[in-house]
Amino acid sequence: MAVTTQVSSDEKVITIKVDGRFDFTHQKEFREAYKNHCIPDLLFNVELSGTEYMDSSALGMLLLLKEHADNCKGKVILKQPSEGIIKILDMANFNQLFDIQ
């Protein structure tokens, strides 16, 4: 898996792209992508179009990101998950916690 991060020029949008397997082996890399960003109205876009697999630890990492965003008065959007990833997110009721587009 690869985690890449892009910060918008106004630093109000952080895009975190997750390719391949999203599991515990990349927990530190995922956390590093957002931990130093905290301003009001910050938007975290988590791009999941290239995510092939997601386990329970990945769900936990998304919850930690949401907690961080909430503490910063920001928002998390999960973008373009595949059908398989949508099923996982729905089973975990993440559709009630996150904006999934």
TrEMBL record:
Residues 3-101 form the STAS domain. Transmembrane segments: none annotated. CDD domains: STAS_anti-anti-sigma_factors. InterPro entries: STAS_dom (IPR002645), STAS_dom_sf (IPR036513). One of its GO terms (molecular function) is anti-sigma factor antagonist activity. PANTHER family: ANTI-SIGMA FACTOR ANTAGONIST TM_1081-RELATED-RELATED, STAS DOMAIN-CONTAINING PROTEIN. This is STAS domain-containing protein. It comes from hydrothermal vent metagenome.
